[in-house]
Design brief:
Order of helices and strands: HHHEHHEHEHEEEHHHHH
Distance between the termini: 120 Å
Strand order of the largest sheet: 1-2-6-5-3-4
Radius of gyration: 48 Å
Low-confidence stretches: 306-314, 324-329, 342-350
Structural class: alpha/beta
Strand content: 5-15%
Length: 361
């Protein structure tokens, strides 16, 4: 059974002036039923808030999550204010539909360190839940256009907040019980959260229209924005320095690999030079032996193992040694074969000489 307070008690309990009540056109019975229904639902709403908070906190870019369930007096005051403003959806509000009309019965704030992280959070949170309505990004006059353009490309509506608030608002649906509940999630930086909390604490309820307070809070808002910009700059600078260090490290690694390859090449060249020197020595020795044999033949001396060779054949062998000297590794191999063959053969034919030139035994 709904307990109906007197109008005076009701207005006092919910911080509503008589003038505002009369302008709203609200019905006392309907408002009392909404207030009573909300009082009963608060525990379930807290469960919903805690569930959303646990899920959002797991998003890597989220620093921390704050949540609250709207107090009954704030709910009633909001309905009265919306009715005064002529909001169409609030004009027919009652206890059966208020939980689907008021979008922030459960409210959460996902806080992050750097401005750019709001885009990472946007992508992550929309993979988990589908917004009930188009998300809204509140910006301040003078904010960077690049971030606003990115918001627009993602289907987020851009609105300039008159008080300078910066945040992105989402509305999601939850139904832990038979009644559907709308949940509002806001994402903003820690600096913006600090400024907005101070702004709210200082201005309400007594100084909301004080020009001096508003002036200094505006300066404070700009300082908070500058702090966000400085944070983003430091983040970019750190990323740039890390990338520079990575490139230097990679360049040093490449240089070390090049030096190792050069050392290996030098070692191979040294081996080849040594092999070349040995080859030249073998060829020179072979030439010396052939020259000595030639002199012996010219002198009419008998040369064992070469009795079947005439002078023209021997000239061919001398030409062979000259040809062998034109190459390095092949010459060495042929010279070694020839040197090994000379003491053992009884007669060398032209075919033998040709075979020696080709490297055949």
């Amino acid at each position: 059974m709904t307990v109906i307070l007197s109008l005076e008690d009701f207005l006092r309990k919910n911080h509503i002036s008589q003038k505002s009540w009369e302008e709203s056109g609200c019905d006392l019975m309907v408002m009392s039923q909404i207030a009573e229904s909300h009082d009963r639902a608060i525990e379930h709403l807290r469960d919903t808030a805690e569930f959303f908070a646990r899920v959002i906190q797991k998003i890597p870019s989220v620093h921390s999550v704050r949540w609250r369930v709207k107090e009954t007096s704030h709910l009633v005051e909001k309905i009265v204010r919306k009715c005064i403003a002529g909001s169409e959806k609030y004009l027919k509000i009652d206890a059966s539909n208020y939980s689907e009309t008021v979008t922030d019965l459960v409210g959460l704030r996902a806080l992050h360190l750097f401005k750019g992280e709001t885009l990472d959070i946007d992508a992550a949170i929309r993979e988990i839940w589908t917004p009930m309505e188009k998300p809204v990004a509140y910006v301040r006059d003078g904010d960077q256009q690049g971030l606003a353009a990115e918001f627009s490309s993602r289907g987020i509506e851009i609105k300039e907040h008159p008080a300078g608030y910066r945040s992105v608002h989402y509305v999601f649906s939850s139904q832990p019980t038979q009644r559907k509940v709308l949940v509002e999630v806001q994402t903003r930086t820690l600096f913006e959260e600090g400024w907005s909390e101070i702004d709210h604490r200082v201005k309400y309820p007594n100084f909301s229209d004080n020009p001096a307070i508003s002036y200094f809070l505006t300066i404070f808002n700009r300082l908070a924005g500058s702090a966000d910009e400085m944070g983003s700059f430091v983040q970019t600078l750190t990323t740039t320095l890390h990338e520079q260090e990575r490139r230097i490290s990679e360049a040093n690694r490449q240089h070390e690999m090049s030096l190792e390859k050069m050392e290996a090449t030098i070692f191979e060249l040294e081996e080849l030079r040594q092999q070349d020197a040995e080859s030249r020595a073998s060829v020179a020795d072979l030439k010396g032996q052939i020259s000595k044999l030639k002199k012996d033949l010219h002198a009419g001396k008998e040369v064992p193992g070469l009795l079947g060779l005439d002078l023209s054949m021997f000239e061919a062998m001398h030409g062979l040694s000259a040809n062998l000297g034109l190459t390095q590794l092949d010459a060495a191999s042929s010279a070694q074969r020839l040197a090994a063959t000379l003491p053992h053969v009884g007669l060398l034919s032209w075919a033998d000489i040709n075979n020696l030139a080709k490297g055949d035994t």
